From TrEMBL:
Organism: Trichocoleus desertorum GB2-A4
Domain of life: Bacteria
GO molecular function ontology, one term from the record: kinase activity
PROSITE patterns (UniProt xref): DAGK
InterPro entries: ATP-NAD_kinase_N (IPR017438), Diacylglycerol/lipid_kinase (IPR005218), Diacylglycerol_kinase_cat_dom (IPR001206), Lipid_Phosphate_FormReg (IPR050187), NAD/diacylglycerol_kinase_sf (IPR016064), YegS/DAGK_C (IPR045540)
Upper classification of the organism: Bacteria, Bacillati, Cyanobacteriota, Cyanophyceae, Leptolyngbyales
Name of the protein this chain belongs to: Lipid kinase
Length: 296
């Protein structure tokens, strides 16, 4: 008996509309029975998944990291496995899980791959796959339009980041971890659950999405140009070795600021400080390659 799958595709994703017909053909070719749904409001996606709880065997989601983030509550509640079609700009969750952007290969993984349990991050009631952060990343999110992402792809992150960094001003925050209170003056605090974020930047060099921990770093530079020497190291997660970067690992963190500051979760602004961050171990199932190979 063929598996029945709920197919949700963000038609506004960078490759969404053009890839939909191709994806359906590939998935049906692998014997999947597809039930396609779409909505213009990402907030409706969890309820849509819940409504199919007893009618499908898995949920296939096509889009970028923002779309993946939008479905987490529905997946956690139903415990339906997730199949990923990486159709967005950064596709950091797919990169973390070694799922290629080639659509035919991604469809084969959904049909023939293995099921892996992965952790989720949680902040103030919001789940995240990759990273939750405040500071520079929020400003990048606020300035990067859909048109820029669609035109320039992953390079949109770099060009926008360079512009934002030159305008950045350090802010004061308090990080609480394991009973310790740490005052910092920083331009960014990032809390990672997965391995990649921001179009291929690495949280820390040994980060994994199933390691039952969160990795926090605080970028404590005083002048914008001090980030330039750190950029190559940030691709491989070795920036934490710098004296300008504070790194912590744990299962829970709190971050307090003098005034509420917005927090970005997987590329979307979803909550504000004060914030409590937690890891949720083995929270859901994802279809991944049987023999994973690193993606670039």
């Amino acid at each position: 008996m063929n598996q029945r799958a709920l197919l949700l595709v963000n038609r506004q994703a960078r490759r969404g509309q053009e890839a939909l017909t191709q994806a359906i053909a590939h998935l049906q070719g692998w014997g999947l029975d597809l039930l396609e749904e779409s909505t213009a409001d990402p907030q409706q996606l969890p309820d849509l998944i819940r409504s199919y709880r007893d009618r499908v065997d898995l949920v296939i989601v096509g889009g970028g990291d923002g779309t993946m983030n939008a479905v987490t509550e529905g997946l956690v509640d139903t415990q339906l496995p997730l199949g990923i079609l990486p159709l967005g700009t950064a596709n950091d969750l797919a990169r973390t899980l070694c799922i290629p952007t080639d659509l035919a290969q991604a469809c084969q993984i959904i049909a023939e791959g293995r099921v892996q349990r992965i952790d989720l991050g949680w902040v103030n009631g919001k789940y995240f796959f990759n990273v939750a952060s405040l500071g520079l990343s929020v400003q990048i999110t606020q300035q990067m339009t859909k048109e820029v992402k669609r035109r320039w792809g992953v390079f949109a992150y770099l060009t926008t980041a360079l512009r934002v960094v030159r305008q950045s001003q350090p802010f004061r925050a308090e990080i609480r971890c394991r009973g310790e209170s740490i005052p910092v003056k920083t331009v960014q605090i990032a809390v990672g659950n997965g391995r990649y974020y921001g179009g291929g930047m690495t949280v820390v060099e040994d980060a994994a999405i199933d390691d039952n921990r969160l990795d926090l770093y605080s970028l404590e530079i005083q002048n914008w140009w001090q980030i330039i020497p750190l950029l190559p190291a940030m691709r491989g997660g070795q920036h934490i070795k710098s004296s300008k970067v504070r790194a912590l690992a744990g299962k829970e963190f709190e971050v307090h600021t003098r005034r509420p500051r917005p927090i970005n979760t997987d590329g979307e602004i979803t909550t504000y400080t004060p914030a409590t961050f937690r890891v949720v171990p083995k929270a859901l199932s994802v279809l991944v390659p049987n023999s994973p190979t690193p993606t670039s």
